[in-house]
Write a structure and sequence with these properties.
This protein is α+β, with helices and mostly antiparallel strands. The protein has 2 domains: 89 residues, no CATH class; 179 residues, Rossmann fold. The chain is built from 6 helices and 18 strands. It is globular, with a radius of gyration of 19 Å. 39% of the residues are buried.
């Protein structure tokens, strides 16, 4: 089975694992795709069954890398990671950073990745508190107007969840279970809780996370230079030269307010974020 995803010139192939295809549609993803009837050679990605699970081959050259995955959750998560890379390669003007992004009434609140600081868990808590999620993983920023794009892919939580997660949040997740294993879970957010593929919004603020074990939550304004240093480590755009990359990251840091959030549990953190979003 060959599919072509919007924004990726080459098709992707699924062989012997067509049962995975429903996970490429809402509520897991709103990324438009359709059956490909053109030249079957040179797929951007090839997903096949293997004796131990699944295999993904990225690229069509002899040197293309092949990786093995044990179950449906692992292969779908890795497939979207590879699809992001194919999209980025085909759209070299995009600035891409490893970050989450969500919005309430205003612009986007961008949360760069930081170890195990809990960005995805915080992002899903934001959805439970009325926010619209743009991403919990890859944020693409357009060159001219500086708006960020949504890929429309559901967030993934690392399991087990923190012990301080409330029963109310567990109930929110139970209503949105879709695909997972003992290590992670997709959250099937509903319309209004997640932006669709291609939806764009301006960036209003950038938030660095610092999850601590004890103490009251605290939100403090920080300098643009601190945010720029952090963004430099989260950027994975390969098509831009170093000078252009630095200039655009600096512009991104200057675009919105900059904060650091220290928090223990997500619900108290969300209450603070609602004061700035």
């Amino acid at each position: 089975m060959l599919l072509r995803f919007e924004g990726v010139p080459s098709p992707v192939s699924f062989s012997g694992c067509e049962h995975l295809l429903p996970f490429l549609k809402p509520p897991v993803a709103s990324w438009p795709n359709e059956a490909w009837t053109g030249d079957p050679t040179g797929p951007a990605l090839a997903v096949t069954r293997s004796p131990t699970g699944y295999r993904i081959v990225a690229g069509n050259a002899d040197s293309a890398e092949s990786c093995e995955y044990a179950d449906d959750y692992e292969v779908i998560a890795s497939f979207f990671a590879e699809l992001y890379m194919a999209f980025i390669a085909a759209n070299p003007d995009l600035l891409c950073i490893h970050a989450a992004a969500m919005r309430w009434e205003g612009g986007l609140l961008v949360v760069p990745a930081s170890g195990k600081a809990g960005k995805s868990t915080l992002t899903v808590h934001a959805a439970a508190a009325g926010a619209t999620v743009f991403t919990d993983d890859v944020l693409a920023v357009r060159e001219h107007e500086g708006n960020a794009l949504s890929f429309g892919v559901a967030p993934r939580l690392r399991l087990p969840l923190p012990a301080n997660v409330t029963e109310g949040f567990h109930a929110f997740l139970r209503d949105r279970e879709i695909l997972g294993n003992g290590c992670g879970q997709y959250v099937a957010l509903r319309p209004g809780e997640i932006a669709r593929f291609g939806e764009a919004a301006p960036i209003a603020a950038i938030l660095l996370l610092d999850r601590v074990e004890a103490g009251p939550p605290a939100l403090e304004a920080i300098g643009k230079s601190e945010v720029l240093r952090d963004l430099l480590g989260r950027n994975f755009t390969h098509s831009l030269d170093a000078e252009t990359k630095l200039s655009r990251l600096l512009q991104l840091a200057k675009t919105g307010a900059c904060y650091r959030l220290r928090y223990v549990d997500c619900e108290s953190a969300i209450r603070l974020l609602r004061e700035i979003a």
